[in-house]
Amino acid sequence: AFLLHQNTFAAENTIRYSVFSEHIQDSVICQVKLPESYSEFQEQRYPVLYLLDGNLNFELATSVIKIMSRGIQPFIPEMIVVGITSPNRDFTPTQALYHNDGTPTPPTYQLSGQAGHFNDFLAKELKPYLDQTYRTNDCNILFGHSLGGIFGLHVLLHRQSFFNAFILADPSIWWDRTKLLSEADSLLQQSFSGESISHAIGH
Question: Is the pLDDT of residue 1 over 60?
């Protein structure tokens, strides 16, 4: 079964799930934060923000969204925020056997290259469950930082995702000796009409 365990925190309007994914064969923690107006406006449907590295980003992201979606003229719409916590190896698009300097990577890197399985989890397990359980609309946003960012770039450029907006912070384009960059010229010949991307790099 998709849902193994659930804790609901009514005061916080937050639901926490512990999930075992058939696609990545690993446990995933999902935290769902519902908008303040969710129970008041029963006909309202909401965008969904899929937040990778939820253990690090969930509290900050939900606080920022809460502030920016308030007021007479909010900056952004209210949205359902889904924080997703899973092993970093699930984000990487390729199995990296060598460092950028040509030296072999450590044995732990043998587990890398599972982005396809993680994307299947999002598209075939998590999204259908969220769409059936909550009042979602057709706006799906992905936030990823570092390895989560390279995952976002990978599924965007390879046309493998259901997301129509991406927020990618400091994506790890160095991964596997910048393999994604070497593919970029041909991948960017595609049309990306109807999708938006926000890209940030910190120093």
Answer: no
Calpha distance 22→10 (Å, rounded) = 29
From the CB of residue 80, how many other CB atoms can be counted at a distance below 10 Å?
Answer: 21
CB 123, CB 161: distance < 8 Å: yes
Cross-strand partners of 145 = 169
First to last CA, the chain: 43
Residue 154 class from Cβ within 10 Å (0-12 exposed, 13-18 middle, 19+ buried)? Answer: buried
pLDDT in tens, 104-151: 988 888 788 899 999 999 999 999 999 999 999 999 999 999 999 999
3-class DSSP state of 36: coil
- Whether the CB-CB separation of 104 and 125 falls below 8 Å is answered with no
- Look at the block and give the residue holding tokens 């910048």: 178
Find how far residue 117's CA is from the centre of its chain.
Answer: 13
Q: Closest Cα to residue 46, out of 58, 31, 33?
A: 33
Output the pLDDT for position 10.
45
Q: In angstroms, what CA-CA distances link 69 with 18, 79, 88, 114, 118?
A: 28, 9, 30, 35, 30
Q: So what's the pLDDT on residue 66?
A: 93
Neighbours of 103 (CB within 10 A): 7
